[in-house]
Design goal:
The chain has 353 residues and is of the alpha/beta class.
């Protein structure tokens, strides 16, 4: 094998640019073989592992840097997805983006992320900005899309039927049934509810499902034991003041079903602060099963959304549509699971405030 040349000095103007052809000539291979191996394209499957390793080692030794823009112009592709998220600092968004990143990375796609914070103007503005940067499709998280975004789009927790948009949604009716059946089996009749913020795309659908299932199960949803979250805090503090309001009322309850895990954890804090115990006096159920739910005190019983998997499905769906491998479907429904931990127990004989 022809020895590799010494490493070039960084920033040297006299050294020749290392190309695929450079590597190919050094190894006695074709430029197509080198390209397939370095890009891990379908053609790379026919290349022996030993040859792949030689190519990768040579590229590293020669400090080869692929020309992304040349590749883009040549193929008329950017291999880039625009991800429009509500927030990335909270566990919900972080888990979804983790799943998206994992799939796209393995399939040699990039993604650009912008944050819409439930502002319709930002949603449209950022969509246009991403278009000018050449994205080939969109994934939106917790956004209510009302108009097509001109490119293939997948909406996680999207509910409106819009042409060209694939909604990835949880089976909220199944989720409500899992939670309410659990509480009913434990003997709870007086159940308090914390509804989601009006801006959250899941709020209306989830609440409708809870009310429908409760009626079928003859569980009373009482207005005096129902309160709605407000604000944008992505920590357990979001649930604390609303649980305090429920506890300060004149209507006792033995269980609380919260909109999400962070509001449930904040509620546990409020319940304990009043001198009551979880679950001996009040059981608490959350929603999502974020990583911190298992380590709450006590561990939180919750409806699990497979958020990382949902992110992976969103990424796979958008890539398949871009590559022409899959037909358009308006909706993909995801099944929830129910995780029982220490925050729920048998209803006390005496109702507590």
């Amino acid at each position: 094998m022809t020895p590799l040349p010494p490493k070039r000095k960084t920033g040297s103007r006299t050294s020749d640019k290392v190309t695929l052809k450079t590597i190919a000539e050094r190894l006695g291979l074709t430029a197509g073989t080198v390209s397939a191996a370095l890009n891990n394209s379908p053609a790379a499957k026919s290349i022996p592992e030993r040859t792949k390793n030689r190519i990768i080692a040579a590229a590293r030794e020669l400090n080869y840097r692929p020309n992304f823009f040349a590749r883009t112009l040549r193929l008329k592709r950017t291999y880039t997805i625009g991800v429009i998220a509500e927030e990335i600092g909270d566990a919900y968004g972080a888990m979804l983006i983790s799943g998206i990143e994992e799939y796209l990375r393995k399939n040699n796609f990039f993604f650009l992320t912008v944050i819409h914070r439930h502002d319709p103007k930002l949603l449209q503005t950022y969509a246009q900005m991403l278009l000018t940067r050449g994205v080939e499709g969109f994934i939106t998280l917790d956004a209510s899309i009302k108009d097509p975004l001109t490119l293939p789009t997948v909406a996680v927790s999207g509910h409106a039927r819009v042409e060209g948009v694939t909604n990835i949604v949880l089976d909220h009716k199944r989720a409500a049934r899992l939670a309410l059946e659990h509480l009913k089996e434990l003997g709870h009749e007086d159940i308090a509810f914390i509804k989601g913020q009006t801006v959250s795309s899941d709020s209306a659908v989830r609440w409708s499902a809870i009310c429908e299932v409760a009626q079928e199960m003859h569980i009373q949803v009482r207005p005096e034991l129902t309160i709605q979250l407000e604000g944008t805090d992505s920590t357990p503090a979001i649930g604390y003041p609303f649980a305090k309001q429920l506890l300060a009322g004149k209507h006792p309850f033995t269980a609380l079903f919260a909109y999400n895990d962070i509001s449930a954890m904040g509620s546990i804090w409020a319940i304990k602060e009043t001198g009551l115990r979880v679950p001996e006096d009040i059981s608490v159920v959350g929603f999502d099963d974020i990583p911190g739910a298992a380590y709450a005190n006590p561990g939180l019983t919750t409806v699990r959304q497979p958020l990382i998997r949902m992110g992976q499905i969103a990424a796979q769906t958008i890539v398949d549509r871009i590559e022409g491998r899959g037909e358009y479907v308006p909706e993909i429904q995801i099944e929830p699971e129910f995780v029982v931990r220490a925050s729920t127990g048998a209803a006390p004989l005496r109702k507590v405030r």
